[in-house]
Amino acid sequence: MRDERFCASNCPFTRAIGTIGNKWKPIIINVIGTRTVRFGQMDSIIPIISRKVLAEQLKELEEDGLLERMAYKELPPRVEYKLSEKGLAFLPILDSIKEWNCKYEVTPLTEAPGQKSRITYAADLIDRKTFVPKKIAKVATDAVIKD
Amino acid sequence: MRDERFCASNCPFTRAIGTIGNKWKPIIINVIGTRTVRFGQMDSIIPIISRKVLAEQLKELEEDGLLERMAYKELPPRVEYKLSEKGLAFLPILDSIKEWNCKYEVTPLTEAPGQKSRITYAADLIDRKTFVPKKIAKVATDAVIKD
DNA sequence: CAGGATCCTATTCGATACTG
DNA sequence: CAGTATCGAATAGGATCCTG
Fold it and tell me: Which UniProt keywords are given for this protein, alphabetically ordered (chains A, B) (predicted)?
């Protein structure tokens, strides 16, 4: 998920793309935003990502200094993630990507206007109301069977 | 390479990530920049991408309105690519990603200072001097054999 | 020259089960 | 709760050959 060839480049731009150039990391960074978020929260906000991939991406983001992980020695365990200074500095870039898309997208879907914070927005986007992810469909099927 | 689930989201940010959220497209857009570039040029500027993947990415970028493809009816054929207005509007975002990385990267490699244009810079980054890509190594081997 | 088609391999990803 | 381990399926990607 991190392209080591890109990261080994002597070009800072290429290295940056090697680090954050995939589809999950911008989404994760955007979802965390300025908040402090627990692992399970992220998993339910972004239901289409599997817990395995989520854990992998979070680990890489931590290694690359984009976020800070705080594990509390409790039972049941509690782990909180928040963006580092580097990660926070990336948020304006994500905002500009959204603005860019809104301005130039050929066939934009209808979008409810109003005051959407970064987080509620991100939550709206990739969730069960927007498109039915596989694992949610699976859960629904199970529920029907149980009934 | 385009995540259709992301593109079907009702969130413009998620759709944007579904469109350009991979490692190749930012590189390609950056390499083209404000120039008009031929297919073969791109293939030699970015030697680590295979021609197949390059063609696929270019087609998607064209479909998404980021670049314009001009095919001249000549023999041998000549095809030129240049960024559309939408694609050009994405360049400042790529610049800000580079600046962000330069400012916050934990262990940046040494970088030669000086006046580097977008293009020569991109060419430096992913090429045979930076790290030896497989197909260049192959070509070199062939050359040795020929000699 | 600029690709398309084909075949094959490597990598990613998801589902499931398990643990401290 | 917050992961990790394992396995199998899906996908990305490379090599090669072919064509207008």
Answer: DNA-binding, Transcription, Transcription regulation
